[in-house]
Design brief:
57% of the residues lie in helices and 0% in strands. The protein is built from 15 helices and no strands. Helix 5 packs across helix 7.
Length: 232
């Protein structure tokens, strides 16, 4: 029955079909020769029990049970470096993993919530300020999926901070300022595109805060949110 026998097969199949119906799916998957080139090139395979080849094989066979298991246990070990795209067959295991991750996030899988726990503050800062955060936030306890590299970054954090533009005074808030008009446009895009709904599936608390902030700004700018929702 597989590792997640308690989950109905119909639910596993639904998630696989959501992956398969992604417009990028056919571009990223062309079958597997089992040559191992992707594994040899994969940095994550050196540190984790992870194999990009197994991802491609499972999807090629449409092994619904294994695919569901991978969406819960394996895909979060991928570093998304796309070294695996050197595949002789033209597969992109990293691209397939990206699709699987997006489906996991949209559907609020437990694995997605756990994997993104360390990024909660990052998500909040980006969506509330419209820009990236400072390197100070890259700490080993929050970014375990970075492997040994995050330890190197955290050790040199004072050096990294000096790369932040001087107008922010090397603080931990943002890397640069975003204009009020630009931020309002970003808020409108996020509000209408469903980005906030995706965040809600991962962290309801962060979603509630962001929704309140974004709705308040949009209303101040004269947008009729009820009309926008009806139009959407």
């Amino acid at each position: 029955m597989g590792k997640y026998a308690e989950v109905p097969y119909e639910e596993k199949l639904r998630l696989f079909m959501e992956v398969k119906e992604d417009p990028r799916y056919e571009e990223y998957l062309h079958g597997c020769y089992e040559c191992g080139v992707c594994v040899a090139a994969c940095p994550s395979a050196r540190f984790y029990d992870y194999s990009p080849r197994k991802i491609t094989q499972a999807l090629s066979r449409e092994d619904v049970e294994l695919i569901y298991e991978q969406m819960n246990d394996d895909i979060w070990n991928c570093s998304q470096c796309y070294s695996c795209t050197r595949c002789r067959r033209g597969n992109s295991p990293g691209g397939l993993v990206q699709i699987m991750r997006e489906v996991a996030v949209r559907n609020g899988l437990k694995s997605a919530k756990e994997a993104l726990t360390g990024y909660t503050r990052v998500v909040y800062k980006i969506h509330s300020t419209g820009t990236q955060v400072s390197p100070d936030m890259l700490q080993p306890e929050n970014f375990r999926d970075w492997g040994p590299y995050v330890h190197q970054v955290s050790r040199e954090v004072e050096v990294w901070r000096k790369a932040i533009p001087p107008e922010t005074m090397h603080t931990v808030t943002t890397a640069w300022e975003v204009g009020e008009r630009t931020l309002g446009e970003l808020y409108l895009i996020w509000y209408l595109s469903g980005v906030l709904d995706i965040i809600r599936e991962v962290d309801a608390g962060v979603h509630a805060i962001l929704e309140e902030v974004i709705e308040e700004v949009l209303e101040e700018k004269g947008y009729d949110l009820s009309a926008l929702e009806r139009a959407g």
